[in-house]
Amino acid sequence: MTQAMTPEVAVAGRARVGEGPVWDARNGRLHWVDIPAGHIHTSDPMTGQTSTLALPTHVGAAVPRRGGGFVAAVAEGFASVEAGMTVRCAVLPEGSA
Fold first, then answer.
1. Side by side, which strands form the sheet with 85-91?
2. Residue 60 in contact with residue 74, Cβ under 8 Å?
3. Closest CA to 72 of 16, 11, 22, 12
4. Which long-range contacts (CB under 8 A, 24 or more apart) does 30-39 make?
């Protein structure tokens, strides 16, 4: 017998294109991105609070780093992101994107 499940909203986030949810079990936070807005969101499902890092480019995915900050897939390649400051780690060659 199959039981019906009722989904619950964990985070009432608003985004143009919300993608890439990553659960951070160590901190009890949900990280997700808004691709065209260039936002990395960090949501606390217990409080409903969300903080946002705004990047100056599209961001396709972001994963929290053990030491803090994120590694993000951005339009130009990959970036190391800390408290709103972006440092490029690897950049796609000109004309390859």
1. 59-64, 70-74, 77-82, 85-91
2. yes
3. 22
4. 31/62, 31/63, 31/64, 31/70, 33/59, 33/60, 33/61, 33/62, 33/72, 34/59, 35/59, 35/60, 38/74, 39/15
- pLDDT at position 20 is 92
Query: 53 - beta bridge partners?
Result: 40
pLDDT digits (tens, 9 = 90+) for 6-64: 988 888 888 899 899 999 999 999 999 999 999 999 999 999 999 999 888 899 999 99
Residue with tokens 């946002």: 52
92: amino acid identity, one letter: L
